[in-house]
Amino acid sequence: MKALRFGVLAASATALVLATGGTAAAAPAAQAAPAGNAPQCIHTHAWESGVWSYQRATNHCGQAYRIKLVWTVASSHCFTLQPGSSVTWKVFRPAWANGANLC
Hints:
The chain is mainly β.
């Protein structure tokens, strides 16, 4: 079963994080996200669309991991990512994806 979650981050002097449900439209401009400190079997993918920067992490490992998605401006909250599942988070641009870190 794939878990799919979205969030919004408004970056300013203080960061406001709001978790919302929904789907993201595919964007033509994609960037490769660095691995962060999560295991290499946690694959990340980043892209931009309009005013948003998106990042998705997919667990190709044989076990669950607690991860968060990281950008230059902030990071998501921690997710428990089961094998075969993925999580997507979005932040306001400009933000560069820095992969997934373990929590």
